[in-house]
Design a protein that fits this description.
There is one protein chain. This protein is an alpha+beta fold. The chain has two domains: about 10-50 and about 175-270, no CATH class; about 60-160, no CATH class. It contains nine helices and eight strands. The chain has helices spanning about 10-15, 20-25, 30-60, 60-65, 135-140, 155-160, 160-200, 205-230, 235-270; strands spanning about 70-75, 80, 85-90, 95-100, 115-120, 120-125, 130-135, 150. The strands form two sheets. It has a five-stranded mixed beta sheet with strand order 3-4-5-6-7. The longest helix has about 40 residues, at about 160-200. The relative contact order is 0.14.
Length: about 270
């Protein structure tokens, strides 16, 4: 085991630009590799939260949106709005829908990068490919409100500025924890891909080393993914295509890194048998 510590920024730089450095990266412990992934995800999550919060605040915040809405009321876990048609607010990349009659076609989410859909009993958040569904009762219970909690449009208008702060907080929480969890889960899936590449190349690496290679192979793809998500550019077909591009980049890095390691293994084997 190599006890030499490699700095975060060195790992960040070398994982993208220097495949010859991968043999040294995997000599570090798995715990350090996971710590790198968590810190890297935390940075991406914070940057993503700032971008999403900025978009929310620039869009006019909750106050302006509520002022233009029809009368609404939340009672006994059900949201009702005095409107026969869904209320829709959208731009090139973002969609907000309030549909308490549950008429909306959920496939509409595929056409936008960020989506918020408020139904009669739940709210759906979507950011690129991450989707989260929150039941109203469960959501309010986390803040200490019981099942009898109720409010209407007039109540919201009185505290809309405070709600804006809560929404920004939720954006940060969702972005931070969502990014970290998705990257950790993604690293496990990518390690399976690494096992396949390891078998094909006959590198004979232990799973721990394969897992570490997978973590560092995610860096460039994740940076590109973040830049794409933060941009105002959004085309549904390209978003589907980018999913495959993401994993193509990861697989390429895994394959090239294992090729480098295999060459070192072969050289060491030749030297041992001389």
């Amino acid at each position: 085991m190599n006890n030499e510590k490699i700095s975060f920024f060195t790992k960040l730089n070398k994982s993208i630009f220097d495949l010859n450095y991968y043999p040294k990266l995997i000599r570090e412990s798995t715990g350090r590799a996971i710590a790198f992934l968590v810190l890297f995800s935390l940075i991406l999550g914070i940057l993503g939260a700032f971008v999403s919060s900025f978009k929310f605040l620039v869009a006019g915040r909750l106050t302006g949106f509520v002022e233009e809405m029809a009368y609404f009321e939340y009672k006994n876990g059900i949201l009702s709005v005095d409107s026969d048609e869904p209320i829709v607010d959208n731009n090139l990349t973002t969609l907000v829908v309030i549909d308490t009659n549950d008429q909306i076609d959920m496939e509409i989410m595929d056409d936008y990068k960020e989506t918020v859909i408020m139904l009669s009993d739940r709210i759906i958040f979507k950011q690129v490919t991450d989707v989260q569904v929150i039941d109203y009762k469960e959501f309010f219970s986390t803040f200490g409100f019981d099942s009898n909690f109720s409010f209407n449009k007039n109540d919201v208008m009185r505290i809309s500025n405070k709600i804006d702060i809560v929404i920004v907080f939720l954006i940060f929480a969702f972005a931070l924890f969502g990014t970290i969890i998705s990257k950790l889960i993604g690293s496990l899936f990518i390690s399976i891909i690494g096992l396949v590449v390891n078998a094909v190349k006959e590198t004979k690496l232990p799973y721990a080393d394969i897992y570490k290679i997978g973590i560092y192979s995610m860096v460039l793809a994740s940076v590109i993914d973040f830049l794409y998500s933060a941009s105002l550019f959004w085309v549904p077909f390209l978003s589907i295509l980018f999913f495959f591009v993401y994993y193509a980049i990861v697989i390429t890095y895994i394959s090239l890194a294992m090729t480098k390691i295999k060459r070192i293994q072969d050289l060491q084997y030749q030297q041992y048998n001389q």
